[in-house]
Amino acid sequence: MREHLADYVALVRDAAPVVDLGCGRGEFLELLRENGIAASGVDSNASCVHECRARGLDVVQADLLTHLRGLADKGLGTVFAAQVAEHLPPPLLAELLSQAFRVLRAGGLLLLETVNPRSVVGFLEVYTRDLTHERPLHPDTLRFLASAVGFTDVRVEYRAPVDPSAKLRSVPPEELPERTAQVLNENVARLNELIYGPQEYVLIAVR
Question: How far apart are the C-alpha atoms of 22 and 93, rounded to whole Å?
Answer without folding.
Answer: 14
